Amino acid sequence: MPRALAVTCKVICLLLIGVVGSLLSEKNDLQFLVLTFSVQFKSVTLGLLPLQAEPIRVVVTGAAGQIAYSLLFSIAKGDVFGKDQPIILILLDIPPMLPVLDGVVMELQDCALPLLREVIPTDKVEVGFKDIDAAILVGSMPRKEGMERKDLLKANVAIFKTQGQALDKYAKKTVKVLVVGNPANTNCLIASKSAPSIPKENFSCLTRLDHNRACSQVAMRCGVSSDKVKNVIIWGNHSSTQYPDVHHAKVNLSGSEVSAYDAVKNDAWLRGDFISTVQLRGAAVIKARKLSSAMSAAKAICDHMRDIWFGTKEGEFISMGVYAAGNSYGIPEDLIYSFPIQIKVQVQSPKQRNVFFRSAAHDLI
Fold first, then answer.
1. Which of 238, 247, 248, 304 is catalytic?
2. What is the C-alpha separation between 305 and 77, in angstroms, rounded?
3. What DSSP state is assigned to residue 48?
4. Is 362 a catalytic site residue?
5. DSSP class of residue 185?
6. What are phi and psi of 46, to 5 degrees?
C-alpha cells in the first residue's frame, strides 16, 4: 500500500482579543451592540491521525460549588468551546474547599472525557490564572442573613479586586472573562478595573439566565419550544431592577415568525406578570428549593461563552452585560450594563484573532 501522505491543514481556534472601533447594526429598527471576532488559524501536520487543536486553558472559580458542579461536565465534554477543542480545566476555590475539589477532580476523571486533557485543582490565583484563555468567575460572597448591601459589596470588592489583579498579572491578554458571582455587574466592573492591561471589552457578566427565563416564559405562553423564541432583551443589571423587553422579540408559530405581542395575544400579561416573573425568578427558585439557581445558571453560562466563542446566529441577538462605553442609549459609560448583543466571527489573520466591539449609533426607544 502507498505510504500515507502528511496533510497540512489550518485549524480555526476561536479565541478573542481586544477592542477596535464601533459599528452600527440595524434589525427591524433595533440598534444593538455587535461584537466581532476574528479567527486564528494554526498549521498542523497530520498523518493518519485526526486533526487535534492545542488545548485551551479554562479556569472556573468557586469550583466546589453547586453551579460549577452543574457546569464543569458541559465544558469538559465540548458543549462550550467545541467538540474538537481539547480542554485543560483549572478549578479554583478557597483552601477549605480543596478536599471537595479533589472529589470533583475524581468525578471528571471517571467521566473519561476525550477532550479533557488535565484537571488542576488549586487555591492559588497564580496557578489558577496562569496563561488562561477563558475565565468563568462563579465564586463570590453570598449575602447572608443580617448582612447589609454595603457589607456584601465590601466583601466582593476584595475578592474581585484580587482576581482582577491576578488576571492582569498571569492571564493571557486575550483572555475572555465572564463574571457570574453576584452582584455580577458590579463585580465585573471591579475585576475589569483591577486588570488594566486586559481590554475592558474582554469582560462580561451573566444576564443570559434572565434572557433564557424570558424566552421560556414566552414560549410556554405560546405553547412552543423555547428555541422558537428569539430576540428578547434584558436591559440593566442581573437583579430585580432589570427590564425584560419583548418589543423586538419574535416567535416562530408553525413556520412563520410573528412578534411576541401578536403571538401571546395578551398585552397585559407581557407588561405585567411576565416582567415581574422574570425579575423575581431567582428569588422564587430559592424559596422553592432553599438553594439558588444552579442547573439553569450553568446552562446560561454555557450559552454565553459558546456565543462568545462561535458567534450568535444570523438575525439573532442575545443579552449580555458588557462595558457601556460608546453606547447610544444614554447609559453612563463607566458601567457594566446588559444590552442586546450580536457576535460575529471573522477571519482576521493567520496568527491572530481580534475582538471588535461595535456599539449602536441610535437609541432603541
1. 238
2. 14
3. S
4. no
5. H
6. -120, 145
